[in-house]
Amino acid sequence: MADTNNGGMWTVLGVIIIGTFITILNSSLINIALPKMMAIFGVSLDSIQWVVTAYTIALGAVIPLSGYLSDLLGAKKLYLGSLIVFTLGSLLCGMAWSNSSMIAFRVIQGIGGGIIGPVGNAIIFRTVPPEKRGIAMGLYGVAAMAAPAIGPTLGGYLIANLSWRMLFYISVPFGILGVMVGSLLLQEFPKKSPGNFDLIGFITSTIGLVCIFYVLGKWTSIDWREMEYPLLLALGVFSLILFIVNELMHPTPLLDLRLFKLYDFSAWSVVMCFLSMAMIAVPYLVPIFLQNIMGYSAMQTGMLLFPSAIATAIMMPISGKIFDRWGYRAVMIPGLFLFVAVSYPLSFLNTDTSAGTINLLLIIRGMAMGLVASPATTMAMNSVSKAMINQASALMNITRQVASTVSIALITTILQHRIALNSATISDQLSVTNPVTTDAVRALQGVYFQGGLSASDANGVAISTLAGLVQKQAYVDAIDYIFLLMMLVMAVLFVCIVFIDLPKYVRTRLQELHNKKEAVY
């Protein structure tokens, strides 16, 4: 039953925001700590990547369980329990003495973090009445945007001035606060008998998601001649097929895939997946562009990205208010239009683009993101009954997690392919017989020769410099190409949103015509 008391509603939202904030903040901090942990633990890049992979795998394994456990234990107990587990995992990660211990403690973190998201969403939708869910999800989204925005800057400061261990310890007081406030103020919802535990569903989903997430996490570095990865991929796909078949036949499935029979739920889930793909491109690619191409430090990159996150945080509550009053079209259509409009100039980024221009484009994109980030989730969740909210939240979260993981793997694959293609194309144009190439080498050779190098050394450095410029230009062109693809994705999504209710309208009209014919006869 929705809590219509405003004070209670916003208090509940505040407790959920705490859990969301620390889980997302932790994910945005971890990559900054990896180089330091490599040095401290004395391990290779492949070994330290397991610190990230272990968390992702644990996350994917427990999300499908969240709906069942919420029905069994109650949403309040499960949420507070998962927050305790995550906080304990954070404390242990800060105390880790080796890479192996860090990986084990990250699994504990992932188990807690994987439950916090879907159960928190379900609590919001069971507490907040439908007419206020837009603004509630907008405020909830502020935490989701603020955490990755401050993560790089905060992480850089903590490592430089304190210790990499503080990246984990910083979550502990917030976690304790969330547990204390939540235990006092969160209300428990009536429990629902979940029925017999779907053991086959749990086993097949765990094997499938773990294999798929593991392979996708290593996608760009995989040597497909090694049998390990094709076998894991095949096992993952086969397990997920068995999972789908089992869920459709089981009387009390772990994840009720029959929710996808609801047109609104399935349509908005698809919209959410494509939004995830388009949204993830900028936070993934822009730091690469700024640091690898423009030579910015991690701190400078974080400061440049920060205003766009502020723009998103400002727009999300506004978007929620508009959504509650005028519906999804009032925010999704202008938001997607703005997304398409700003993606076009982003596809022309180059080494001459000023920081001010990049900042302006990212702020506009941040405003667009603030408009479109929450409505798809809200529309999907609004389409299900209260009794199915736990299941719907679990299904939405695992769908979003899979979409994000696939998107990163896809974007990275396209990026590497385009870099190789662009490098070959530019290199062909800059052959030794091309006078432009010889003039460029000669000019660079002259600069290095005047700098004190011998003629032969100057020639070698000049050729090396030109090769580096070719690689850098290939990188820039590849990033621009992906931004152009994302613009096309958002343009298609814009058209889909305009006509998203058309199938329902056509079906209703056909049913009316059918009823009229039956009335005549």
UniProtKB/TrEMBL annotation:
Its main localization is membrane
Topology with regard to the membrane? Multi-pass membrane protein
- A Pfam family this chain is assigned to: MFS_1
Q: Which residues cross the membrane?
A: 12-35, 47-66, 78-97, 103-125, 137-160, 166-187, 199-217, 229-245, 265-287, 293-314, 326-346, 358-381, 481-500
The protein's UniProt keywords, in alphabetical order, are: Cell membrane, Membrane, Transmembrane, Transmembrane helix, Transport
Q: Does the keyword GTP-binding apply?
A: no
The molecular function terms of the Gene Ontology recorded here are: transmembrane transporter activity
Cellular component, GO annotation: plasma membrane
Residue span(s) of domain Major facilitator superfamily (MFS) profile: 12-505
Name the InterPro entries for this protein.
EmrB-like, MFS, MFS_dom, MFS_trans_sf
Report the coiled-coil segments. Answer: none
Q: Where in the cell is it found?
A: Cell membrane
So what family is this one in?
Answer: Belongs to the major facilitator superfamily. EmrB family.
Full protein name: Drug resistance transporter, EmrB/QacA subfamily
Source organism lineage?
Answer: Bacteria, Bacillati, Bacillota, Clostridia, Eubacteriales
